[in-house]
Amino acid sequence: MMVFNFKGGIRLFSQRLNQVIDRLDPIEVSLVETLLGIAIEPQQPMTMAAIQRKLNLTAAELTLYLNRLVRLNLITWATDEAVPLENA
């Protein structure tokens, strides 16, 4: 499992997303949509494997895309086997 945060909270995340949205590829957009969906329903735990299946990605590819969102200052994330995926 993993824990993610929107960098600077949802307000700053949305401002930053507006700045970079044109630079995101379709998979990155789908990942952002998935993370927003999780933030809306945090009581629904989702594993990294579930996100991989949803986006049809390998573990390495998902890590690559998550790290790209980190480099774009959109999110922070870390794996934590004991914590459900959420907007912590």
Explain this structure:
The chain has 88 residues and is mainly alpha-helical. 55% of the residues lie in helices and 11% in strands. The protein is built from four helices and two strands; from the N terminus they run E-H-H-H-H-E. Strands 1-2 form a two-stranded antiparallel sheet. Helix 2 packs across helix 4. The longest helix is centred in the middle third of the chain and has 15 residues. It is globular. The two termini are 13 Å apart. The C terminus is likely disordered.
In short:
The protein is mainly α and 88 residues long. Helices cover 55% and strands 11% of the residues. The two termini are 13 Å apart.
How many individual helices?
A: 4
Q: How much β-strand is present in the residues?
A: 5-15%
Quickly give the structural class: mainly alpha
Helix fraction, binned, reads: 40-55%
Termini separation comes to 13 Å
Mean pLDDT: 87
Major sheet characteristics: 2 strands, antiparallel
> Largest beta sheet: what is the strand line-up?
1-2
Principal-axis shape equals globular
Note poorly predicted spans. Answer: 82-88
Topology pattern, helix = H, strand = E: EHHHHE
What is the alpha-carbon Rg in Å? 12 Å
Quaternary state of this entry equals single chain
How many β-strands, per DSSP? 2
Notable characteristics:
11% strand; mainly alpha; two-stranded antiparallel ribbon
Task: Draw up the topology in text.
Blueprint: E1 2-6, H1 9-20, H2 26-40, H3 48-55, H4 59-71, E2 75-79
Antiparallel strand pairs: 1-2
